[in-house]
Input
Amino acid sequence: MPTEAKTSADLSAENHEMIDLIYARCQENAPNFGVTADCFKDSLTRTIFKYLGAEGDPESGDVDSLLTQIQADDLFLALACANGNERAWWEFDQAHRSYLERVARHLAKTEVDAQEVIDQVYVELYGTKIVDGERVSKFSTYSGRGSLRGWLRTVIWHSLVDLHRASHDEVSLDEMTENVGEGMAHASFAETAPGGEDEMMDHLARERYRKATVSALASAMASLEDHEKLLLLFYHVDNLKLREIARLVENESSPLRGWFQRKSRSRDENPSGRIHESTIMRWLEKSYARVLSLFKSELTEKFSLKPDEVEICLGLATKDLSGSDLFSQLSAG
Amino acid sequence: MKNLEKNNAPEAMIESLVGQFLKARSGTEFNRSAKGPHLDHDSLAAFTEGNLSEREARPIVSHLADCSFCRHVTAELIRLDLAFADAPAPAPIAAAAEPSKISEVLSGLLSRIFGTSDGAVFAHNAESKPEEADEKDAPVEPEDLKD
Output
């Protein structure tokens, strides 16, 4: 993310004009919120450079595209609440409190926890820190790039994690994840004992194949593009179901969807088609095929293994990976 | 899909191998600070909703591929998003629903949390309540909230 502060002066005249139009519409919808044009423009400028500034100064067209997708009314409400506008707070409470309660109850183990989290979130939203004589509201960190409800869900989720940590005497994140997912995978590796068949293998040959397998697999995985890695990680490590991944790419302009479909004909044939679980499965299979191809190339080219040795190596590696020895090599690798 | 172990085809074996490899790697990388600081609430929420452009999403996807902490949070938020996918959008506020004195309603709501008087809750609003300006600069201590 960019570190250099940018101002609205860095935007084009067309961008300014568009922001003015958005502001006028929001002001018409909520004339009592007391959000000034400067406040609104400053907020949108921060959003633009936060999301588009990582790869250098954005083109005017990129900014236009972002502005057309901005959740302007949500942002207007959030800015008014951040400024302490009473009417805005009342509307926020009317529109979103019951939703906040539903999300908190869905996540929390007890009603007491849910209520505590809701109270905590309201406190954060209002703001308790005073910086340079101004109260800092959590609302001021909302950019309008996603929906206000999506942002509120994230705030509640984090508050619940904080509540959980506090009630467990500040357990480390390592310990927390041991209970929620990734740590479980770690533990299962350490418990699995090698079978008798493995003991029959020649020690030197095993070490040679292990070293080659770990190296080739690491190299193959490193060669994948980020979106391919992310898909595999979501599925295998974070245990997202196919339909949950499909939900993430539901939007037809989803970049993940675009990257996976770029080299296939499916986007051209059905660009706005719904993404089914079977589509995600095909993407996974393509990623496996890429890994396999890279893995085999590495074994044959770098380690000079013959094709039949590669197949044997692959089968043994799959079995041996459940043992702790190879896991320790992965950790070090 | 995950039952392919019974099949000895290389394609099936590589799936299992990839899964085991990623789990092992991820377990050791959990606390590693990947590329820069962790993603903030706003970026996580915007990405989870799937509305970002390629340019906006690229650095986020790159971070998520390296940072298991942020990826775990993202996965939880995706599940949460799906669980509430059918939640109705916020309805427009009807004019008739507006209370005669909004400040009273809000003050009651927030004073329950803050444990303060109505005036103190909105002390920051110097324009509408100039008589309370002295309280504006007073820091609010977290301990005060628990009274």
Observations:
- Confidence is low (pLDDT under 50) at residues 1-6, 117-147 of chain B.
